[in-house]
Amino acid sequence: MQAEVIGENVDDRPVSGRDAETRRLKDALASHEAALLATARFLVHEEADARDIVQQTYETALRHLGELRDQEKLQACLASIAVPSYLRRVR
Description:
Layout: H1 2-7, H2 17-44, H3 47-63, H4 74-90
């Protein structure tokens, strides 16, 4: 019986609505990561600081996910989070 559980393929499990939404969000965030990282690099000029800004941006975006009305505007939304994150770091 243990062998069956250990060998079970995770992808074969049913996906709940919340899990599917989380996957879609992760895919959407990943598709914008390069542009967001480029924006952060432009702002701070240091790779580690740029990656920190991207991380903070993703955390904020996840907390306010319910407020996002149009996924087509996700990139603009992420940029509007990243710039204030940078400004807070500078102060």
